[in-house]
Amino acid sequence: NGYTPSTKTIAAISTPQAPGGIGIVRISGPQAKEIAGKVFLSRHGKTLEEINGYTALYGRVHDGETDIDEAIALNFTAPASFTGEDVVELSCHGGLYIMRRVLKAVFAAGAVPAGPGEFTRRAFLNGKIGLTEAESIMQIISAQGEQAAKAALAGHDGALEKKIIRIRGMLIEAAAHLSAWADYPEDDIPEVNPEILETTLLTVKSEIETLLRQFDAGRAIREGVATVIAGRPNVGKSTLMNLLAGCERSIVTEYAGTTRDIVEDTVILGDVPLCLSDTAGIHITNDPVEKIGVDRARGKLREAQLVLAVFDSSQELNEEDRELISAIRDSSAIAVVNKSDLPPAIDIKYIKKHFQQIVYISALSGDGLQEMRDAVAEVLRTSELNPADGILFTERQRDDARRAGDCVREALTAVESGVTLDAVTVSIEGAVSALLELTGERASEAVVDSVFSHFCVGK
Ligand code: GDP
Ligand code: ZN
Q: What detail does the entry give on cofactor binding (predicted)?
């Protein structure tokens, strides 16, 4: 990628996430061994420079005057290291104070401080990892929850990159065929069959659309979903909230309209963190205090990414229920038909007409909780998420995939309307170029900079 190797040797504390009290100072660059040799003395009095070929050495780190700590020096010779450069890692078991002294000694010996993400950046520039892989390293560092970590790991294994390269391959083949035929129509290159071309484009389009859909599902798992529990007083919102939270959070009472304030909590339902808020109803009221609650509830409903609309199955639907149904017409919503343990009186046909997802539950007994998990996974499409398949997990990746998708749609329109094949080729090339940017093979320096600027020092 036309990158000239850095002449600077960088160092930083890059302590792993694993506990155990071990701290690591990582040194990377052409002078890594020389610099490490100035601060590290092996037990047998050998310096690192003399011990090429050793991978690990036990000894002591010193600052030229005094010993700082005992240490193990791990030696990686270019290009067989994380960054692709010569790397020495000094592992000490000191705390932060000791590690800072070690780092200071390393700087005094000639290393310069590593910038945020600079080790990973060098790994990328030296072709050790792809851009999407670098992004997934960052995701792993900040991942919350098992599924999120899995999704990030999938990027780490290069699943996304493999998928993008496969999709791009289909496009490149189509474009190559098109241009060969356009350039040498008199040769015996078989004529481009518009139907086959169309099939290829449709396949690519659907793969990109799946990736884009799954981006939202992946984000739901990583970042959580703003969820509102809505419903008129006494349908069982607080009880549902408590069931989901597994503890007594809201105040449950026998009297209607107790929950004035929005009560919030985050629960993990299935794989998905839901940031729940329990609202006051959205009934029409003249009470000024209640009115504030109702207005806030409407605001929350508009902002919600998911609405759990709770109804009391033992009661007939009333005006307030219908008002809620109409207020969430355009939202992602699940009808939660509560109190399934009581004799039913609700007009379920009306509910069915307005909701695609209906869950019958008894918030009191917990019956129907599994159905609730399934419905949430269905609405947020997290059930169809298979990280091992490769998923988009940053907005940068999503934007590039979107652009590629737009170009493919353009190409399809061109094929279908029978315009010149040149126009089709241009659109396909646009898609290929967007996908090259996605994997980082043709990403601008600004893009690369912005990816690594989010890293912390030492990674
Ligand atoms: P909210 O006003 O919508 O928050 O309703 P609450 O959660 O405060 O519940 C109102 C009343 O309904 C309480 O007495 C609850 O015990 C009761 N309740 C809630 N869920 C159920 C249920 O599934 N079955 C039965 N039988 N009662 C329930
Ligand atoms: Zn309540």
A: Binds 1 potassium ion per subunit.
Residues 241 and 310 in one domain: yes
Q: Is the CB of 65 under 6 A from ligand 1?
A: no
Q: What is the CATH number of the domain that holds 204?
A: 1.20.120.430
Look up residue 403 and give its amino acid: R
Query: Ligand 2 centroid to 51 CA: how many Å?
Result: 70
- Render pLDDT for 87-127 as a digit per residue (tens, 0 to 9): 999 988 767 788 889 999 999 999 999 988 889 889 988 98
Rounded Cα distance between 211 and 328, Å, is 27
Distance, in Å, from the CA atom of 237 to the CA atom of 223, rounded to the nearest integer, reads 24
Q: Which atom of ligand 1 is found nearest the CA of 232?
A: 3
Domain of residue 173, residue span: 152-220+394-439
* Residue 451 domain flag: no
Dist. CA 254 → ligand 1 center (Å):
8
Q: How far is the CA of 234 from the centre of ligand 2 (A)?
A: 7
Task: Tell me the CATH number at 360.
Answer: 3.40.50.300
Ligand 1 contacts CB of residue 342 (under 6 A)? yes
Of 47, 119, 58, the closest CA to residue 87 belongs to: 119
